[in-house]
């Protein structure tokens, strides 16, 4: 898209100039790690061998800009998953934690001590707003409580199934048109269109008509452009992007402009949906339980139930839902089908399982597979989890120490220090997943004794986070993954573009760099 071409990667002059700017305004301030709470013998915190005086790892950030997740992996393997840190000039030191024990301490055992923090809120609030993703403290607690109530509602689950069913049949039409033209389709684009269509309908009760559209919806285009800018913020000195934002130029101007478009459209739709609910109540009209969106569920609750959630909060919540669910689910599907193209033996086993477990249903093109069918597809479930292990949709998680803390008995973390949990690194660790951790092997997820899918610790398989901030929409995400995968593989096989090298973009999610071009071949 043209709008994305406006974005520029950070360059050497920007970060090298940072050193001069910081020194010019008073020099670098060094914070002491001494604290009365520090252990007598704190564990060593390793640093990259390329760490430089003053510049720290600023040049590493430039050098690895397009493969940052792999750099984190390489450094973690070098120090055998002991804690290590890196520093960008002008920023606080960032601590990297890559063991399940450390992750459990940060996300559960000492949850109150590790918050989103000012740094991350500043980075993401212009994108997510102050919804449940960005909030801390009481605001987070009340919003989380409401979110969990919404996601646990049976009516929302029913609406999701109804919406997925409808949109899968739209996908069938797109695939059949592509087959008739003997053409290829970009599965990455289709998966993103599918998920934004489904979750926008679930959240707002509106159809964006993204699937099969020649032109990208302005709401969706704005989110993509804005998300790329937010990802750049994570790799730039805070003062640099804040200065850009204040002056409203460069990438930050792109972010501001696009989020203005996104929020204007979103607030108009939310206001219309709320007013429609009010009008329905006044007239005595009711909505079927299958057709209730989050907006309608919101309007059904009392003010006490909603714990102070305003219409503005509702808009932020719906935005969080759409942004989070759209990208993470679509990226998971994209990497899964990419891996199937590289591993035809896995696709063959999935089809064999479908034939064995589902019988004649597999050969009837008019039968839509439901959750009653997919619950029998153990190997397919294992393959989906294995793809998400290797390519976690959220590649790393940030926290900030709200106070001095000691984890695992001897790892001291000072107040204000940034902590990163890199899911991409955790997932590819031979220490945690065995010597073949870098291999796509769904069998690792199947218990040889029970034949069922293993339930790994959330601190090891960290894709949906863990502890009090565990993803509230996990069940709905899995529902969509299973249904779309099973129904696509039931009707088509795909000849994948062999030129796709599987590289990723540095974005908020693990976004595939190239289009995932595929030629659909009907099976019936």
Automatic annotation (TrEMBL):
Required cofactor(s): heme
List of residues binding heme: 471
Keyword Metal-binding: yes
GO biological process: lipid metabolic process
Keywords from the UniProt entry: Heme, Iron, Metal-binding, Monooxygenase, Oxidoreductase
SUPFAM superfamilies: Cytochrome P450
Superkingdom of origin: Eukaryota
UniProt xrefs under PROSITE patterns: CYTOCHROME_P450 (PS00086)
Transmembrane helix listed as a keyword: no
Family membership noted in the UniProt record: Belongs to the cytochrome P450 family.
PANTHER family: CYTOCHROME P450 (PTHR24296)
Stated name of the protein: Cytochrome P450
Source organism: Pythium oligandrum
């Amino acid at each position: 898209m043209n709008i994305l071409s406006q974005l520029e990667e950070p360059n050497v002059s920007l970060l090298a100039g940072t050193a001069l700017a910081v020194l010019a305004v008073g020099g670098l301030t060094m914070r002491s790690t001494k604290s009365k709470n520090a252990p007598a013998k704190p564990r060593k915190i390793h640093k990259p061998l390329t760490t430089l005086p003053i510049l720290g790892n600023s040049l590493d950030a430039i050098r690895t800009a397009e493969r940052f997740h792999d750099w984190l992996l390489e450094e973690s393997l070098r120090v055998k998953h002991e804690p290590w840190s890196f520093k960008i000039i002008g920023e606080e030191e960032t601590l990297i934690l890559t063991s399940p024990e450390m992750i459990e301490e940060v996300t559960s055992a000492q949850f109150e001590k590790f918050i989103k923090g000012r740094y991350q809120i500043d980075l993401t609030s212009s994108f997510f707003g102050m919804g449940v993703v960005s909030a801390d403290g009481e605001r987070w607690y009340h919003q989380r409580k409401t979110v969990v109530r919404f996601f646990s509602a049976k009516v929302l689950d029913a609406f999701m199934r109804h919406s997925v069913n409808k949109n899968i049949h739209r996908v069938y039409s797109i695939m059949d048109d592509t087959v008739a033209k003997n053409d290829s389709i970009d599965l990455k684009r289709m998966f993103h269109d599918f998920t934004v269509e489904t979750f926008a309908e679930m959240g707002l009760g509106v159809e964006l008509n993204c699937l099969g559209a020649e032109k990208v919806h302005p709401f969706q285009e704005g989110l993509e452009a804005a998300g790329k800018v937010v990802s750049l913020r994570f790799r730039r000195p805070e003062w640099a992007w804040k200065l850009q934002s204040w002056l409203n130029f460069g990438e930050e101007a792109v972010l501001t402009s696009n989020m203005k478009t996104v929020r204007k459209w979103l607030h108009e739709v939310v206001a219309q949906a709320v007013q429609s609910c009010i009008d329905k109540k006044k007239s005595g009209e009711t909505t079927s339980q299958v057709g209730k969106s989050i907006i309608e569920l919101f309007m059904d609750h009392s003010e006490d139930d909603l714990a102070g959630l305003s219409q503005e909060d509702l808009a932020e919540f719906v935005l969080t839902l759409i942004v989070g669910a759209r990208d993470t689910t679509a990226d998971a599907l994209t990497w899964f089908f990419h891996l199937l193209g590289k591993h035809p033996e896995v696709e063959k086993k999935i089809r064999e399982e479908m034939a064995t477990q589902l019988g004649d249903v597999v050969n009837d093109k008019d039968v839509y597979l439901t959750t009653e069918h997919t619950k029998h597809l153990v190997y397919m479930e294992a393959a989906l989890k294995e793809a998400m292990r290797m390519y976690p949709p959220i590649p790393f998680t940030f926290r900030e120490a709200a106070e001095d803390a000691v984890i695992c008995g001897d790892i001291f973390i000072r107040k204000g220090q940034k902590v990163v949990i890199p899911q991409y690194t955790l997932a590819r660790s031979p220490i945690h997943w065995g010597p073949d951790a870098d291999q796509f092997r769904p069998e690792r997820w199947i218990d040889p004794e029970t034949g069922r899918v293993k339930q790994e610790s959330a601190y090891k398989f960290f894709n949906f986070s863990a502890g009090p901030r565990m993803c509230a929409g996990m069940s709905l995400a899995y529902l969509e993954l299973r249904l779309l995968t099973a129904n696509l593989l039931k009707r088509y096989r795909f000849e994948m573009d062999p030129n796709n090298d599987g590289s990723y973009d540095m974005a908020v999610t693990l976004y595939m760099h190239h289009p995932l071009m595929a030629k659909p071949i009907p099976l019936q």
